[in-house]
Amino acid sequence: MQLPESQVAVVEAASADETTAVDALAAATDLPPETVTGAVFELEEDGLVVVKERVDETSRLTDEGETYADDGLPEVRLYEAALEAGADDDPASMGRVIGASGLEGSQVDIALSNYARKGYGAIDSGELTADPDADPAADAEANALEELAGTDDTPLEVVDVDGETMGGLERRGLVEIAETTVREVRLTERGVTVRTDGLERSETVGQVTPELLTSGEWEDVEFAEYNVEADAEQVKGGRVHILRQTADRVKDVLVGMGFQEMEGPHVDADFWINDCLFMPQDHPARTHWDRFALEEPTHIDELPEGLVERVERAHREGVGDDGEGYHSPWDEDFARALALRGHTTSLSTRYLSGEQIGEIEPPARFFSVEKVYRNDTLDPTHLLEFFQIEGWVMAEDLSVRDLMGTFEEFYARFGITDIEFKPHYNPYTEPSFELFGTHPTTGELVEIGNSGIFREEMLEPLGVECDVMAWGLALERLLMLMYGFEDIRDIHGTLCDLELLRETEVTY
Ligand SMILES: N[C@@H](Cc1ccccc1)C(=O)O
């Protein structure tokens, strides 16, 4: 029988009496494991071998785990120093014991957080006691680390560590558990017959080369079948962050919907961020609690004079015959103060006023996908900086239908078809709506944006004479709906999990 070279090698190396693992076959045939796996699958299809699969869990110590395996667990080192200081008789100063233990940096916190939990003693108002009956030699985690040191990638069944301890070490980030599929191969009767009858190697080509094409040889060669199931080496190269990928996709979608991109400063005058939006100067969001002010320089040099006057008048007197202003103070110096923008609606005011690219004629559509900064408290749905998808449409006779229809069209491009709207209030829009989507795994409603139709009080001073509908959507919340992230910190900042970012499939 004629078979490709790698298959011949596998049939020759495999046995009918016992199973051989792919790795062992790779060693025996001198072929890469992925080539052997490919050959094995094809032989299985032809009935020459049978393949049994099992998943092996293997463990390996992380760098931190290695360190503790060498130097001892921080809590054990603290206990030893405490005994040394006589803390089994009298409470000793915590600072002194820590100093004597030689623990540094984050290891101190790790020692302290495990010390009492694991029964080594107690910590109370700066003093530390040691339980004389505690026994570091019986510390299951310490013993497990010792057992695991130097056994990288050993199947869990073989290492002598109980599941609970292993789970604890994994949670502490001291071991990593990996799953690998092990394939065991045995020759079938037909395989044995074929082998005894004699095997011939057929030439197969695994890759098309320019030479094959130009020489015309490709017409005569036999191509190896492509096996997408074969294990292959994992390549962990750099890749575009999922947040950036989604931002780019949002831009593509909006450009596809006829929008043009806005650009502008991250640090801007309150005038553009708030005053042009008919936000009263005594609005709570304008206090120093909510914004990141700039120390140097503190104020913008220039603002368009006429516009400043018109905005001030709108704030003081309102706009239109029955308009009412805020009757509250308005101060140009306050408007000139610089801060990190809390929303990208500052770009919209710059563009709408004609300041950024000159006067804009309706119909027009603009957007940005840019960072904004807020002095919020960090929690699973809030960050100090995040990306806002800003946008507006300028046209005659816009209605709430247009606004809702635009969102439905936009979100449908990301597979989100259950957007809900809730009436809302913004000083600069009337009516206003908050947008919600349903989280794919928790089923909770997630607020994903804020929107509305700009008020006369805002548009008139800017010199805009037709309708403008506008919005600010949170890019990170869109990711939560698309990928099921529950904590925004999974995709942003220092705590995000590299493995998760590597493995999340990007849907396009
Ligand atoms: N600036 C609003 C979003 C918004 C923009 C434009 C109109 C309405 C709302 C926010 O940050 O929440």
Automatic annotation (TrEMBL):
<protein>
    <recommendedName>
        <fullName>Phenylalanine--tRNA ligase alpha subunit</fullName>
        <ecNumber>6.1.1.20</ecNumber>
    </recommendedName>
</protein>
<keyword id="KW-0436">Ligase</keyword>
<comment type="subunit">
    <text>Tetramer of two alpha and two beta subunits.</text>
</comment>
<dbReference type="InterPro" id="IPR006195">
    <property type="entry name" value="aa-tRNA-synth_II"/>
</dbReference>
<dbReference type="InterPro" id="IPR004529">
    <property type="entry name" value="Phe-tRNA-synth_IIc_asu"/>
</dbReference>
<feature type="domain" description="Aminoacyl-transfer RNA synthetases class-II family profile">
    <location>
        <begin position="250"/>
        <end position="503"/>
    </location>
</feature>
<dbReference type="GO" id="GO:0004826">
    <property type="term" value="F:phenylalanine-tRNA ligase activity"/>
</dbReference>
<dbReference type="Pfam" id="PF01409">
    <property type="entry name" value="tRNA-synt_2d"/>
</dbReference>
<feature type="binding site">
    <location>
        <begin position="388"/>
        <end position="390"/>
    </location>
    <ligand>
        <name>L-phenylalanine</name>
    </ligand>
</feature>
<feature type="binding site">
    <location>
        <position position="430"/>
    </location>
    <ligand>
        <name>Mg(2+)</name>
    </ligand>
</feature>
<keyword id="KW-0963">Cytoplasm</keyword>
<keyword id="KW-0067">ATP-binding</keyword>
<dbReference type="InterPro" id="IPR022917">
    <property type="entry name" value="Phe_tRNA_ligase_alpha_bac/arc"/>
</dbReference>
<feature type="binding site">
    <location>
        <position position="454"/>
    </location>
    <ligand>
        <name>L-phenylalanine</name>
    </ligand>
</feature>
<keyword id="KW-0547">Nucleotide-binding</keyword>
<keyword id="KW-0460">Magnesium</keyword>
<dbReference type="InterPro" id="IPR045864">
    <property type="entry name" value="aa-tRNA-synth_II/BPL/LPL"/>
</dbReference>
<comment type="similarity">
    <text>Belongs to the class-II aminoacyl-tRNA synthetase family. Phe-tRNA synthetase alpha subunit type 2 subfamily.</text>
</comment>
<dbReference type="InterPro" id="IPR036388">
    <property type="entry name" value="WH-like_DNA-bd_sf"/>
</dbReference>
<feature type="binding site">
    <location>
        <position position="428"/>
    </location>
    <ligand>
        <name>L-phenylalanine</name>
    </ligand>
</feature>
<keyword id="KW-0479">Metal-binding</keyword>
<dbReference type="GO" id="GO:0005737">
    <property type="term" value="C:cytoplasm"/>
</dbReference>
<dbReference type="GO" id="GO:0006432">
    <property type="term" value="P:phenylalanyl-tRNA aminoacylation"/>
</dbReference>
<keyword id="KW-0030">Aminoacyl-tRNA synthetase</keyword>
<keyword id="KW-0648">Protein biosynthesis</keyword>
<feature type="binding site">
    <location>
        <position position="345"/>
    </location>
    <ligand>
        <name>L-phenylalanine</name>
    </ligand>
</feature>
<dbReference type="InterPro" id="IPR036390">
    <property type="entry name" value="WH_DNA-bd_sf"/>
</dbReference>
<dbReference type="GO" id="GO:0005524">
    <property type="term" value="F:ATP binding"/>
</dbReference>
<dbReference type="InterPro" id="IPR002319">
    <property type="entry name" value="Phenylalanyl-tRNA_Synthase"/>
</dbReference>
<dbReference type="GO" id="GO:0000287">
    <property type="term" value="F:magnesium ion binding"/>
</dbReference>
<dbReference type="GO" id="GO:0000049">
    <property type="term" value="F:tRNA binding"/>
</dbReference>
